[in-house]
Amino acid sequence: MVLFSEMFVSELINDPVVDVLQESVGKVKDILITLGETFPKVSGLLVEFSGGQKKVLLIGEIELVGKQFIATRVTSDRIAWANLREGDLLLMRDVVDQQVVDLDGARVIRVNDLKLAKVGQDIRLIAADVGLAGMVRRLGLEKFLGAIFGIFGKKIPEQLIGWDHVQSLSGGKVLIPGQAIAELHPSDVAEIISQLKTEDKTAVFSALSENTAAEAMHELEPFIGAMLIAAIDTKKAVAILEKMPVDEAADIIGDLPPEKSEELLRLIKVRKANEIKKLIKHKDESAGGLMTTEYIALPQNLTVNETIERLRKSAPDAETIYYVYVLDEEEHLVGILSLRSLIVSSPDRLISEIMIKHFISATPEMNQREVAQIISKYNLLALPVLDPDRKILGIITVDDVIDFILPPISRRKKPTLG
């Protein structure tokens, strides 16, 4: 029989355990739960005897559970004790004071206490207390501080998060269900990862799908991304890099140790690996270090209709198609075509007739701040980077400039590495 409707884990710890004759058995030191349900069920109590030995008192052996004591069904000599097994989850040891992920708020929180509730004849974990109230309750200062707050007509602030909004735990490590994390925005995924300790960063990142991991990489500092790529399985690392835009993959590869970067470049598809090698030759602070080699370039002798057909075939492989870059027979950049001009023009017109012939460009050595100023001044969506022969090396998109001026979330908040 459960003699309470709700109580906190800290209120059960060190409560006496007595048998059916009210003889002392021991003290509650922790609470065992069974995962697998939205609100996990308490399956036993870890009891410490007077000699210091600890055993598990299974829930089936308990007659009464109250806030002051726990009573067993039988006398102490007839209790069927169980041993703690590897992989068992204890609330005080594995959850309280640990970092967990609030999926609803897309943030990392520290658990100060846990709330239990009677549901039918079961005791279930229903919420995490992440506020001041949980902390002072565990310190035994709840009455004292409560009286002080009461003088001012206030209560100690309580901040509870329903366990259905907190990811599952296993062995004290943070693990996020793939389906739940996939529904979060990549910025939220990156913010969660950036707040975690190093070992938990890897645990969360390893649990992501390849698509979600690749999207989240864009929001992380390259050195954090490199650390994560180096820590996970090589096959998965290659799959993630394959799904990333080539310029972002180059940023990650460039921050890896030489041996690891060479290994990954050997395993990545040859065409993409070659593009990455071209990009990592440029200095990080230059236009060459900022550009991507994923763009659409077409010959100037195509008609509007032919160009649209080409775009339908090649667009899925391009990171952006803000503009079409028009080349002559020797592959010099001779014009830029906006998608708007393409759509509103007659299908039979040559693109050389409607392209912008006088355009702004950058050199690979140009400083990133100069590039940002040009894109901002001329209100461009992308800026081509040309070599001395006027051949296109890559483009810098407005997204890349925004990242430079207003860095990803992990740059604005100091990442946790320890």
TrEMBL record:
Spans through the membrane: none
GO cellular component: membrane
Keyword field contains Protein transport: no
Keyword annotations of the record: CBS domain
Domain CBS residues, every copy: 291-353, 355-411
SUPFAM superfamilies registered for this protein in UniProt: CBS-domain pair (SSF54631), MgtE N-terminal domain-like (SSF158791)
GO molecular function, one term: magnesium ion transmembrane transporter activity
Pfam families recorded: CBS (PF00571), MgtE_N (PF03448), PRC (PF05239)
PANTHER family: MAGNESIUM TRANSPORTER MGTE
UniProt-recorded name of the protein: CBS domain-containing protein
Taxonomic source organism: candidate division WOR-1 bacterium RIFOXYC2_FULL_46_14
